[in-house]
Amino acid sequence: MKLASLLCAAVLAVLLATGIAVAAGSLTSSSKKVNLPPSSTQLEKRAADARCANGRFAVAGGFDTDFGTEGSDPRAFVESMRPRGRSWRGTGFNTGGSATELRVEAYCSKRRPQVVKFGSTRIAPQEKGAVLVRCPGGTTVRGLGYQTEARLGEGSSRVFLVVTEARRRNPRTVRVEAINIPGGAPNPERGTLEAYAVCGKGPRLDALRGSRTIETGETAALASVCDKGRRAGFGGFALRSETSGAPIPERQFLATRFSRSSERSWVVRSVNASRELTLRARTWAYCTR
Fold it and tell me: What CA–CA distance (Å, rounded) separates 164 from 237?
């Protein structure tokens, strides 16, 4: 019995020394809620940190909130969702007529991320922009996050970035895209988009994609479900107009849920708040054993 234990320990040491990943078990989750009161005249931004238990590290995260199309409905925007030490931080605000909540989730691993890579870009008014962040050699993307920007000026928004894409482009690269759709305030400004890639070693993550059409004024959820015996490590989404060359101000699409619904599935709930465009929503679950 003692010899068997020594042999197991020796095999484990060889695996670690050669850089071969040793399974760290399933991800656990932690969540935190924050109230988002109506704030139509000034943006009252509030943050929530979902913190992992001792001995675990936040490698991915998600959120869930509300956005309605009627004047009395809450209209919550998620300004950021990104890693913050052992926590996953989400920040949001509500420009609607009634209060709602922002729920932030952290997905926690026993394996500490090797590095969190960061990139940013500036986006001009009525334009779109994207950030690519690449993990170092020998590591792959284990989670992704972003930070946007919104500011008011003279009763209307001067900067208003809305994320329309956040996904893994390939095993080592994250792509985040946003559009800047300020309101009617004079002198609209550029806004900063930041993207985060949580990089580390671990089992291979295979991408599983889903797609659906969402008509004007509709809200719909789409789940990507991993095969039996596999789990969703993290997810991604892309929201596109089915009309080629549609003006930026008309592309009023946003995600109101981006999280796991079970160990095997990742759900993205999207809103099409445009007046005449049809939305094509795509979601990804990145699945591992």
Answer: 8
* Residue in 119, 130, 95 with CA at minimum distance from that of residue 238: 130
The residues, ordered by sequence, that sit 6+ positions from 261 with a Cβ below 8 Å of its Cβ are 223, 267
Q: Other C-beta atoms within 10 Å of 96: how many?
A: 22
Lowest mean per-residue pLDDT among 69-73, 123-127, 232-236, 263-267 = 69-73
- Work out whether strand 265-272 and strand 46-51 pair parallel, antiparallel, or are unpaired: unpaired
CA distances from 172 to 78, 79, 169 (A): 25, 25, 8
pLDDT tens across 95-142, in order? 888 999 999 999 999 999 999 999 999 999 999 999 999 999 999 999
**Which residues are 58's β-sheet partners?**
108
d(CA 115, CA 109): 14
Residue pair 212/237 in contact (Cβ under 8 Å)? The answer is: no
Centre a 10 Å sphere on the Cβ of residue 139 and count the other Cβ atoms it contains.
20
Structure tokens at 61: 């995260």
Residue 256 CA to residue 258 CA, distance in Å, equals: 7
Residue 169's identity, in one-letter code, is R
Looking at the DSSP assignment, which residues form a beta bridge with residue 75? 67
Q: How far apart are CA 181 and CA 81, in angstroms?
A: 20
Given a contact cutoff of 8 angstroms between Cβ atoms, the answer to whether 274 and 216 are in contact is yes
**Reduced 3-state DSSP string for 234-248:** EEEEEEEECCCCCCH
Assigned token pair, 195: 């993207």
Tell whether pTM > 0.70.
Answer: yes
Interatomic CA distance for residues 30 and 52, integer angstroms: 6
Q: Tell the residue number behind the tokens 């599935």, with chain if given.
A: 265
CA dihedral for 235, 241, 242, 245, sign (positive or negative): negative
Task: State pLDDT tens for residues 152-180.
Answer: 765 556 899 999 999 999 999 999 999 99
